[in-house]
C-alpha cells in the first residue's frame, strides 16, 4: 500500500475571500520516481469526494500497469482543502481550542485549492510539470492553475469541466446543501452532524452524475406485471446515499460544493475569454456526450478560447461519471494528444 505523506505549512494560508486559514496540513500521495531530468511529473487534481490516492479511485488510468504508470512517471495527487481525507477541513481540530470548526469553517474558493497545491509543489521542488489532469472539480483546479502559472505546465488535460461553474451546477449544489441544512443535527456540529441530510444530498447529486438512459438500463424493475413494494431505482438512491455517509461528512460536502460554485477563471481578469487566452500549455479538453451536469458546450468553450487546444468527445452511457469510468477512451485520446504534441 502506498501511504500518504503530510505537509504542514509553516505560515497561515491567505484566502481569496479574506483572512487566513491557520495550521494548514496537506495530505498527499506520490507514486514513482523523478527522473534525472525531472520532467516526468504528472499532477492529478481530484474531484469532489475523492482523496489523494489517485490509484484507488482512478483505476485503469493511474497505477502500475496503467496509462500513468509509476514505472515511468512521478505522479502527485493532493487531497484538497476542505475535504475530510487528511487535509485541513471543517472536521480538523484547529485554533487555540484545538476543536473542529464544522459549519463555521471559512469559505474557500478554487483559487485557495490552487494556492495549497502551489505550496506543495514548492515543497517538492518541482520546477516543471509535464501534465496536470483533472475532471469536474479537479478540472476546475487544473485550468485555474494553468491560467495563474502559464509557464509551469507542458500539458493540461481537462475532463468534463468548465471555465465558470454554471447556474445549473450551482442550483444542483444548492439543492444538496438545502437537504443537508434541513437535517436538524447539522447546526449542532459533531462528527455525525448532517448525516441524514448528506444521504439525501447524494441522492440528488446522482441525478446530475448519471443520465436518463443509464437509469433506464440499470434501475428499471424487470417484472412488467408486478407492483413493487420498493422500486429498484429507490433502493439504488438509498444505497448510494448510505455509501457516501459511511466515508464522508456533511460539513466537507457543503464546503466543497461551495468551492465548486466559486469557480470562475475570468473573475478579476477581464472575463473568461481573456483568462483562457493566458494558457500556454498544450491542452486536451474532453467532453462526455451524455453529461447533463457539465454539458459539452462548456468543454467546447474551453477549447475555443485556449490557444491551440485539442477537443474531443467521449460517447458514454454513464453521464458525468464517465470521466471516472471510461479510462480506455481517455487513454485513447491521451495517446492522440501526446502524438499531436510531439508533432509540434
From TrEMBL:
The keyword Nucleotidyltransferase does not apply. The keyword Cell inner membrane does not apply. It catalyses: L-homoserine + acetyl-CoA = O-acetyl-L-homoserine + CoA. One of its GO terms (molecular function) is homoserine O-acetyltransferase activity. Substrate binds at residues 202, 321. Pathway: Amino-acid biosynthesis; L-methionine biosynthesis via de novo pathway; O-acetyl-L-homoserine from L-homoserine: step 1/1. InterPro entries: AB_hydrolase_1, AB_hydrolase_fold, HAT_MetX-like. Its EC number is 2.3.1.31. It is found in: Cytoplasm. GO terms for cellular component: cytoplasm. Keywords: Acyltransferase, Amino-acid biosynthesis, Cytoplasm, Methionine biosynthesis, Transferase. GO terms for biological process: homoserine metabolic process; methionine biosynthetic process. SUPFAM superfamilies: alpha/beta-Hydrolases. The active site is at residues 136, 291, 320. Transfers an acetyl group from acetyl-CoA to L-homoserine, forming acetyl-L-homoserine. Homodimer. Belongs to the AB hydrolase superfamily. MetX family. This is Homoserine O-acetyltransferase. It comes from Hymenobacter busanensis.
